[in-house]
């Protein structure tokens, strides 16, 4: 018998420990082990009951995701049949759950006759986040325990709920402090003595109501339509739960299996699996090994309490780290602190935070107007205006204020970290921490290593990203780093499309329909068109011969149309938020085409998507060649978490692999011919296309 399941006897009870580190993924060996152990329990008259628990740090994270797409995931015994085997066992089977029970792990537990969880356990069905539905009975058993409404919420959100909530909803029977084994053994003994087994698939009461009112499923689908736009899996989850309520048990299970099989091979599921593994891969940095010392961050400092500094300050407070924020003068400081308090208050008002939580976070924040207040900080993040001279001056001053070994970070979006580091006598401690706006919400931190940044500084900042509940991606220095650099060609082409015949609303709609939360013009209106205007002016001064873009953007800025904040930009915003087409902008666009002698033509949505995204991918190829990003997955995570690239497309480089690198290359060659050198295919793109390889093969 394989050691994927460890077997012990506790009196007459057989205890099976799932043993497949690190997360007890239910791969073939583990499924075989459970099956064989159940055979053993059934055959042995001296065994009266079985307890299933997890070895190591959790019960089980579910099916082994790396098996998906291989024959092993469907090989016998498959997980649905293992679950049925448990449920139909003549002897009671009890789940003793600690750590996490997710996906197939929870489905295994739902098939047991009783579930005990320790207080700190989290339990749920996160399959939807992988572009699939639970495939081992989760959509059929959970609603039988919780009722349809709660099951729909849990399954379509993928939430891992704390044990107390799971008990309240009915899918955990008992919650205990500490190790749940003892309580599980006691429950197993009780069940063995009573002889009465509650088989989940036989429970009917909780689904009866939905059976009488099947309209509930359409209503639920409507309620998630906006959030789940573009994703297939959430709606497939609803269909599967509906089958639980409307079909006899075995047919419901069969329906679930059919839907699961239809999704697991889809490109959405492949993309979402890629996103899952990529999110973990970016934490691995080849030249900064896992055992690199990480400095303790007990206190933090932030310089500048504007748009970004305020959000960054909140991140530290949210993570329980005391933070001192320094502003230019008392008035600016008061404004900044007030904005922070207002933001927290809005969260409290929405019921997403308690007043006590807000108060305790605010007490972690101290304001100051002198950088001397940062002398004890372990990390200091500078977030003042994007001006090199100012940043140099601040880092020079920090050098004499900050304690030895403190991490000196800058939130610059574009400036050269090496120049900033050179303003100090300790460039090894200087690093970029590029947060995204709004900094207290967006999950990405583009961490930028300079030439002299020490491995310890990198390891500490990557670890800090996790503590702040962000995804840290390590990148190198170049104008715009990874994200904003790739954004350049995307916005540039959006501009050219206007000159050639499109209007902002059409471009935005095509990109929105592709799956972004908004198109390029709506995005610029949100961020403020003046930001790009300033950057273009700087770039033009630095590099006058190598910059060609549509000047419509400048014309709009010259009118003071900076975006939402001025009530108008590329679009009009009569209510402050909702874009409507602007007649003035249309006039400028059409006039510009005329001035340039361009005959406006009809542009298809497909062309818009290709014209905006392929040059972005092409720039990604350059970023890889230059070593600014370490791997394609680093770029994908930057775009998924920083720019709203649709997760079900996996990120730009994975998307290129999905449509075919050769397809992207061929199109770029066409664009190159039509539009000139700005569209020249990157050598790496050409090399991969000609070798019939993917970015994933790098
Ligand atoms: C599923 O269960 C499908 C079933 O419904 C049906 C199947 C039926 C099919 C048959 C039909 C006929 N597999 O995240 P961490 C790795 S789908 C493989 O850093 P944490 C992870 O990549 C599954 N590997 O740990 C990493 O590897 P690395 C549904 C998995 O403590 C390492 O483990 N379940 C894996 O921060 C540590 O992971 C989920 O979606 C898996 N299932 O968080 C849960 N899970 O070290 C996915 C993890 O090489 N997992 N790994 O980088 C999680 O959400 C998190 O890992 C936990 C732990 C919250 C469990
Ligand atoms: P902002 O204008 O909103 O805030 C800057 C703040 O710095 C102001 O409150 C100002 O009073 C303060 N300040 C200026 N000089 C100071 C000094 N010497 N000491 C202390 N405080 C000082 O700017 P922002 O949008 O928060 O941008 C800050 C930085 O973050 C910039 O480098 C910017 O490029 C970068 N960034 C901005 C965004 C964004 O979307 N706004 C996104 C990522 C990165």
Describe this structure in words.
Keywords: Fatty acid metabolism, Isomerase, Lipid degradation, Lipid metabolism, Lyase, Multifunctional enzyme, NAD, Oxidoreductase, Peroxisome. InterPro entries: 3-OHacyl-CoA_DH_NAD-bd, 3HC_DH_C, 6-PGluconate_DH-like_C_sf, ClpP/crotonase-like_dom_sf, Enoyl-CoA_hyd/isom_CS, Enoyl-CoA_hydra/iso, NAD(P)-bd_dom_sf. Pathway: Lipid metabolism; fatty acid beta-oxidation. The chain is of the alpha/beta class and 698 residues long. It has three domains: 5-265, 2-enoyl-CoA Hydratase, Chain A, domain 1 (Alpha-Beta Complex); 300-475, Rossmann fold, CATH 3.40.50.720; 483-697, N-(1-d-carboxylethyl)-l-norvaline Dehydrogenase, domain 2, CATH 1.10.1040.50. 49% of the residues lie in helices and 12% in strands. The strands form four sheets. An eight-stranded mixed β-sheet has the order 12-11-10-13-14-15-16-17, with helices on both faces. Helix 1 runs parallel beside helix 2, helix 2 runs parallel beside helix 3 (104-111) and helix 12 (267-281) crosses helix 26 (632-642). The longest helix has 21 residues, at 605-625. The mean pLDDT is 96. The structure holds (S)-3-hydroxydecanoyl-COA and nicotinamide-adenine-dinucleotide.
């Amino acid at each position: 018998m394989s050691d994927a399941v460890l077997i012990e006897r506790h009196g007459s009870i057989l205890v099976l420990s799932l043993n497949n580190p690190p997360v007890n993924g239910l791969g073939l060996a583990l499924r075989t082990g459970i099956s064989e152990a159940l055979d053993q329990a059934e055959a042995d008259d001296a065994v009266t009951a079985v307890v299933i628990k997890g070895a190591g740090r959790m019960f089980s994270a579910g099916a082994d995701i790396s098996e998906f797409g291989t024959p092993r995931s469907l090989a016998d015994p498959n997980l649905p049949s293992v679950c049925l085997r448990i449920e139909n066992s003549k002897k009671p089977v009890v789940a003793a759950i600690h750590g996490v029970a997710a996906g197939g792990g929870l489905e295994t537990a739902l098939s047991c006759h009783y579930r005990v969880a320790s207080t700190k356990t989290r339990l749920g069905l996160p399959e939807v986040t992988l572009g699939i539905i639970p495939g081992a009975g989760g959509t059929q058993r959970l609603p039988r325990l919780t009722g349809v409404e709660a099951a729909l919420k849990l399954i379509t959100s993928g939430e891992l709920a704390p044990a107390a909530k799971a008990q309240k909803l009915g899918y955990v029977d008992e919650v205990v402090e500490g190790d749940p084994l003892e309580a599980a053994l006691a429950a197993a003994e009780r069940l063995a003595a009573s002889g009465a087994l509650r088989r989940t698939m036989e429970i009917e009461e909780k689904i009866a109501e939905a059976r009488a009112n099947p309209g509930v499923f359409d209503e639920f689908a409507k309620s998630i339509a906006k959030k789940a736009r573009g994703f297939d899996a959430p709606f497939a989850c609803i269909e599967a739960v509906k089958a639980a309520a409307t079909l006899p048990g075995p047919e419901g299970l069969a329906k679930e299996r059919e839907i699961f099989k239809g999704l697991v091979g889809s490109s959405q599921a492949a993309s979402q699996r890629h996103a899952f593994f990529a999110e973990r891969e970016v934490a691995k940095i080849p030249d900064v090994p896992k055992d690199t010392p990480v400095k303790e961050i007990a206190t933090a400092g932030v310089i500048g309490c504007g748009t970004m500094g305020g959000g960054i300050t909140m991140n530290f407070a949210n993570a329980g780290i005391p933070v001192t924020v320094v502003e230019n003068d008392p008035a600016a400081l008061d404004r900044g602190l007030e904005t922070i308090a207002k933001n927290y208050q809005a969260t409290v008002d929405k019921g997403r935070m308690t007043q006590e939580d807000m108060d305790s976070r605010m007490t972690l924040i101290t304001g100051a107007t002198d950088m001397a207040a940062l002398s004890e900080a372990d990390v200091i993040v500078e977030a003042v205006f994007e001006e090199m001279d100012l940043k140099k001056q601040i880092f020079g001053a920090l050098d004499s204020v900050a304690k030895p070994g403190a991490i000196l970070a800058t939130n610059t979006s574009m400036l050269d970290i090496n120049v900033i580091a050179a303003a100090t006598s300790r460039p090894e401690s200087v690093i970029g921490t590029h947060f995204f706006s709004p900094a207290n919400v967006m999950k990405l931190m583009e961490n930028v290593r300079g030439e002299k940044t020490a491995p310890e500084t990198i390891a500490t900042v990557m670890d800090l990203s996790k503590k702040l509940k962000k995804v840290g991606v390590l990148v190198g220095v170049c104008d715009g780093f990874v994200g904003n650099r790739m954004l350049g060609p995307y916005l540039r082409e959006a501009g050219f499309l206007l000159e050639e015949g499109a209007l902002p609303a059409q471009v935005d709609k095509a990109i929105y329909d592709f799956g972004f939360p908004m198109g390029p013009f709506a995005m610029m209106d949100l961020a403020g068109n003046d930001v790009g205007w300033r950057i273009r002016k700087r770039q033009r001064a630095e590099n006058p011969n190598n910059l060609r873009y549509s000047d419509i953007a400048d014309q709009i800025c010259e009118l003071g149309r900076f975006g939402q904040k001025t009530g108008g930009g590329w679009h009009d915003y009569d209510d402050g938020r909702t874009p409507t087409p602007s007649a003035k902008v249309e006039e400028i666009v059409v006039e510009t085409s005329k001035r340039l002698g361009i005959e406006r033509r009809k542009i298809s949505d497909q062309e818009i998507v290709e014209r905006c995204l392929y040059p972005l991918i092409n720039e990604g190829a350059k970023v890889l060649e230059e070593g600014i990003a370490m791997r394609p997955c680093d770029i994908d995570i930057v775009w998924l978490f920083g720019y709203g690239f649709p997760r079900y497309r996996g990120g730009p480089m994975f998307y290129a692999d999905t449509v075919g690198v050769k397809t992207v290359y061929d199109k770029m060659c066409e664009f190159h011919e039509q539009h000139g050198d700005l569209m020249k295919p990157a050598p790496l793109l050409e090399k991969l296309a000609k070798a019939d390889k993917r970015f994933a093969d790098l």
